[in-house]
Amino acid sequence: MTTDSLLLDPESLERERRELERAWGATPGLRGWLSDTDHKSVAKRYIVTALVFFLLGGVQAALMRIQLARPENTLLGPDAYNQVFTTHGTTMMFLFAVPILTAAGLYLVPLMIGTRSIAFPRLNLYGYYVYLIGGGLLYGGLLLNQGPDAGWFSYVPLAGPEFSLGKRIDIYAQTVTFTEISALITSVEIIVTVFKQRAPGMSLNRMPLFVWAQLVTAFMVMFAMPWVAVASQFLAADRLVDTRIFDPAAGGRPLLWQHLFWFFGHPEVYIIFVPGLGFVSSIVSTFARRPIFGYPVMVLSLVLTGFLSFGLWVHHMFATGIPQLSESFFSAMSMMIAIPTGVQIFCWIATLWSGRPQFRLPLLFVLGFVLVFIVGGFTGVMVASVPYDMQVHDTYFVVAHLHYVLLGGAVFPLFGAFYFWWPKVTGRMLSERLGRWHFWLFFTGVNLTFFPMHLLGLEGMPRRIYTYLPETGWGPLNLVATIGAVTIALSVVLFLVNLVASLRVGAPAGDDPWEAPTLEWATSSPPAPYNFHLIPTVQSRSPLWKRPPDAPVVTGLRSDMREILVTTMLDAEPDSRMRMPEPTIWPLLAAIATGVTFIALIFTPWGLPLGAALITAAFVGWGWPRARDTRLQREERGG
Amino acid sequence: MIQFPGAHSAHDPAGPQALLLDRLGDLLYLIAAVVYVLVAAALLAALLRRRRAEEDAEDPARERRMATAVAIAAGTTVATLVAVLLLSFGTGRRLTATPPPEALQIRVTGHQWWWEVEYRDATPARWATTANEIHVPVGRPVALELRGDDVIHSFWVPNLGVKRDMIPGHATSVLFQADAPGVYRGQCAEFCGAQHAKMGFLVVAEPPEEFAAWLDRQRDSARTPADSLARRGQEVFLASSCAMCHAVGGTPAGGRLGPNLTHVAGRRTIAAGTLPNVRGHLAGWIIDPQQIKPGARMPASAIPPADLRAILAYVESLR
Amino acid sequence: MTAPVRMMDASRLPTTVFDHRSHMWWGTLGFMLIEGTTLFVCVASYFYLRVNTDSWPPDPAELPSRLWPTVHLVVLLASLVPVVLADRAARRLDLPGLRRWFVVASLFALSFLYLRWKDFVSLNVWWDDNAYGSIAWMTVGFHGTILFLQVVETLIFTGFLFSSDFEERHFSDAADSTFYWYFFVGSWVPLYLVLYLSPRL
Ligand code: HEA
Ligand code: HEA
Ligand code: CUA
Ligand SMILES: [Cu+2]
């Protein structure tokens, strides 16, 4: 490929820009809105939807906390409580955390690597609709008093056909299936986008750590999610067509479910944790005003975390009495995973040490992340000790651990990311003052809610109980936890107020309000549908900080149709150009076909032939007219 | 001594296993606290330290110094983790010793939502079956054989440091010992459905002679009640649905869906550690268990007051 | 922008590329890994149940028959011939060749539907007899969904080849379709060994 020096003439640039606008812009109208395949729109929908689920999960948390605030409270009976805690866990894990964190990647990865689109935009949109249907199914069930009630890991035989009547568990199984489909699609999107679409010069070793984190997450999703997808189909089959996979009376094994679930479930918690590490790296680097110290070690740690996370699943099953040798192995593996996590924390500290930290809001949330997360990390190391776990397994101690790591390791970074990238996404700043209130209330609330739970666990309080006897003496600490939850709710309200206020009166952000180093800040806020008019080239890990004055830009991509630059996997050298498909309504229709199939399968095995027919139809509709678009386009242009 | 609901704290060990776990815990808390303070201090120092105006963020000499510091921190992390691991293995080894021959064998089966307790013996006639209250002699190891009848339950007694799942189709075992006499509360730890919350039990640790006397009593059949009200109660009991679910030794009542009632009056609690075993609660339970444990596998029964009084007298005679 | 800017001209880069240079290839590879993992989970579950069961297949189940599954396996392997030829035709941008071999592949594809049914029946156990029957049916079924999608995709694509909508860049899609075909045949071989031969060991 040639590089020439040329004077770009403003007039032709402007013409090109208008063409790009037309080629990449969404079609107006409802149908256009439903077919909009812009990765930024899809990601925004994911994020808004996931936030709604966070609020719903939070409302359930509030209900549980009120019920448990004092002994023998009667707000929720056992039947309601069990549906509520199960839906809370399922919502937070499957409908909030994973989608919102990977959607941040769907939004930002293409911008950070300097491309115009995600790899398979229609499939991406399909993934969103499938996720939406999955969430709708769960809440539809809950409204009809068919909310799942066997916990977010629904152990058999309790969740099997004999002990869970009704459709509650079937709804759980299919909700899981829907969210897995969508997560798997996202993972393929991210992997292919990262491998093939990086701006020229962004070799793998120049990729932002954020992108590395998303890449590692995508691979973890790819190898972990199929386990639960298969397991949930086994469960659904046991319930619907009397297969006996988990039925001890017919040679089935309840423990098989636990192995399958946790082989997914453990990587799942790191799937939730790793994207947050990416947010933190971006924020720390920006506000320390220097690149992250120890980039290669950071990358290695991320990759290692991904690998190790597949070797820990049995630490959720120590109390089942598996052989001691394997217990020891899984115990050791669980502790070793603290090493890459620790190393990353040390590198951030070093970065801040040598930088010139600016105390902006996102950095405050990073501080909260470290201080809260490592409490959970240390309790993680404790429960990884087999004998210690014998006391605390399935008690509130574990509830404390999981919220410390999830809120510390994922929600704090997520809030930080909101304050950091909101200006890019909306073009407006969030209020720093409200944000500080949000932070301090949230920080206090989290500790107030979850710290007492450690003590409760050690005082004998098991998890998943809808009430407890006054004589147990657990009342006061539970009351404290409830007060903490109210504090968290308050902080979340402030956060929402901040978002809404910013949309109306927020100060304009400009392209790069933080003077950050990565490419997403090189385009307008909010970015145009085509992201970049001229694809930049990259010469360093901090392209906006260390950019040679003569850095070339890419020209020659067509501006009259959706075309992107494809580069080589390792060194990101320009290799080919690719047409991106036009938006169509088929992703929605195909998602509906998928939804009808799996929902029908809750009730009857005839869902299978029905699904075969529907999916065939969707295939035809989706696959066939791919060339018609071109013809239409040609006609439009008068060709 | 706490009689109801029984002592239930991991911090108050009453046997060698629990003691080991408590000590391990204390060490772990200490290590965690120290590391926490160090990390937090480093972080705050990094944020707040005073900077000279001419400092260069990426000064190569300092980068090298920081690399050393990170390496030392990582090395310390590894060393700490290895230490924790060895501690944990050491404790683990001492916990899972094979049961000595003199260990008392007890079989406990988890049901939704109560515990069946069987003291087996070489001669089947000497078997004793009870429920929700496990007596053990102080100072003697106890080997439990754990089974799940319907769904997975988990046997947990914090003060004695035992927890083990009870899995249908797959018996598990665990060893423990109580050194201090007392009443310790146990609780089902694995979520098992509607009444997981109210699936408790008691472990009563008593001196060996008392234990032996207790066990002998458990092996006996129920005595035919002496007073007439209780005798009438027995008739009502046997004639009504009670006998379909409950067994009373020495009578035709042989149901196995509910707890064995042969010596129910001698137990401290009813409904799996949920209520003190006193007349008022007993009456409330028999009339409407669903009020107390919604979803429990025992139906409410419309018993005329006179019959109820008779049944209560009978049940209370089952010592 | 008026200052001189250095430019990298992309206009002469190709638009039809194959294998690891193509997006679709990577996407296909991604889905193969996902589906491969799915099948691996089935096999892992199969062996988990097996090691925890005294006799396999559990009495009184019969051993699976080998005749039809072996026939199917042979047919699957034979189908690779037209598919490889189609793959080559795609790379030569040879539309008549591509059409010819996709038609042949479609005939194979149709036969798979019947043969897959025979695979199920040859297990000689029903899915609700015992855990062995369940896992065997589920494994064949999971591979069956891959098979079904491949059949549908092949038939549609064959139709598409004969329509006027076909453009040059679709040659790459054709090559990816054959790529997936290799996977779906290849992944059946271990399943065949596990399900139909290993119970005799
Ligand atoms: C974000 C999610 C997340 C993360 C990151 C972690 C991190 C860890 N978790 Fe956690 N875990 C959960 C989410 C998570 N967990 C959830 C949701 C459950 C419950 C599921 C359920 O039952 O519902 C669970 C349950 C769980 C169990 C099962 C407990 C039980 O049921 O009895 C175990 C057992 O080993 C465990 C271990 C660990 C370990 C060792 C880590 C380690 O990765 C932690 C490593 C980090 C640190 C240690 C801190 C930083 C390090 C340093 C500052 C260096 C210095 C450190 C030392 C010297 C020690 N976790
Ligand atoms: C990312 C995951 C995540 C998050 C963020 C949370 C957040 C919270 N969780 Fe939860 N939790 C889990 C994941 C999570 N949890 C999991 C996996 C389990 C295990 C489930 C199982 O056992 O199966 C669990 C279980 C669990 C339990 C144990 C239940 C039991 O064992 O019986 C409790 C009890 O207190 C609890 C409490 C809370 C609280 C108080 C919050 C708070 O932080 C929530 C704060 C948020 C809000 C309070 C929302 C604010 C709402 C508003 C401001 C109202 C606006 C509303 C509208 C406009 C509609 N959680
Ligand atoms: Cu039995 Cu929980
Ligand atoms: Cu885990």
Largest sheet of chain C: none
Bound molecules: heme-A, dinuclear copper ion, copper (II) ion
What is the beta-strand fraction of chain C?
Answer: under 5%
- Tell me the series of helices and strands of chain C, N- to C-terminal: EHHHHH
Helix run count of chain A: 19
If you average the pLDDT of chain A, what whole number results?
93
Give short descriptive properties of this protein.
heterotrimer; B: 319 residues; alpha+beta; five-stranded mixed β-sheet; 8 helices; C: 201 residues; mainly alpha; binds heme-A; binds dinuclear copper ion; binds copper (II) ion
Describe this structure in words.
- Chain A is mainly alpha-helical and 639 residues long.
- Chain A contains 19 helices and five strands.
- In chain A, strand 4 and strand 5 form a beta hairpin.
- The relative contact order of chain A is 0.12.
- In chain B, the strands form three sheets. Chain B has a five-stranded mixed beta sheet with strand order 3-2-1-5-8. A five-stranded mixed beta sheet of chain B has the order 4-10-9-6-7, with helices on one face.
- Chain C is mainly α and 201 residues long.
- Chain C has five helices and one strand.
- The longest helix of chain C has 31 residues.
- Chain C is elongated.
- The mean pLDDT of chain C is 90.
- Classes of the chains: A mainly alpha (639), B alpha+beta (319), C mainly alpha (201).
- Chains in contact: A-B, A-C.
- At the A-B interface, helix 4, helix 8, helix 10, helix 11 and helix 12 of A face helix 1, helix 2, strand 7, strand 8 and strand 9 of B.
- Strand 1 of chain A pairs antiparallel with strand 1 of chain C, so a sheet runs across the interface.
- The structure holds heme-A (2 copies), dinuclear copper ion (CUA) and copper (II) ion.
